[in-house]
Amino acid sequence: MDSGYYVAYAGLASRMQALDVVAANLANASTTGFKAQDPFYLALAAAQDGEILSPLNQAVNQFGILGGSQVDLRSGSLDLTGNNLDLAMEGAAFFSVQTPGGIRYTRNGGFHLNAARQVITQDGNLVLAEQGTTTIPITLPTGIPSVSPDGTVSVDGGLVAKLHIVQFAPETTLNPEENSNYVAPAGSELPPSGNSVREGMLESSNINPVAGAISLILLQRQADMLGRAITIFSTDFDRSAAQDLPRV
Predict the structure, then answer these.
(1) What does pTM read for this prediction?
(2) So what's the pLDDT on residue 16?
(3) Which of 66, 10, 33 is nearest to 179 (CA)?
(4) Cβ atoms 192, 96 nearer than 8 A
């Protein structure tokens, strides 16, 4: 009975954690450049190290837990805005921005100017440009800005800067921070290849609201079922044992 109780409890806990992930995805369905998080599960063996379990014990003592979530890097659709500083990335690359916590990477190209005419994100982080082997903030002179597909920034036809655009190997772990920033391992930046900056456009979230809603409903039903299983193990079985004990 204990094994069944712990399996049900672990299953319920993992579904509740997955519900948080799916709910966060749906909450960001309209966030520019947002990438969905896909939860995944791991099996936790209750056996001691080196202990050999029978097939039945393996089935009973493998506890399902939430292993974490992976970033779904598929592109969202590109929506036309007409704003010169609204930029969308076509391809797998990211814009680089300077935050209080260090350099971060984003697909949210809804940029604008601060009072010092520096290009910043919607959160106020500085958008970075290349300068030799380092990066610097972008400051625009007065005039009409434009951005070419390779990330070159001009004002009234005069070259000002070149966006620092990077991409990562497919196996690189990108950790989400806030709604549209990502933290990458040190030294994992790669030069962009096959990417194109689209001026006057923004990338929508890659969330499929219908699929997300279905996932939410399924997880809720699984959680309800596992909750009922816990109730059976902790209440009904205990009641049966209490009733049978005097007969022994």
Answers:
(1) 0.74
(2) 82
(3) 33
(4) no
Would you state the structure tokens that stand for residue 243, as one six-digit string? 């009733």
Query: Which residues, 6+ apart, have CB-to-CB distance to 50 below 8 Å?
Result: none
Residue appearing with tokens 């596992």? 226
pLDDT digits (tens, 9 = 90+) for 136-152: 999 999 999 999 999 99
Q: Is 14 exposed, middle or buried (CB count within 10 Å of its CB: 0-12, 13-18, 19+)?
A: buried
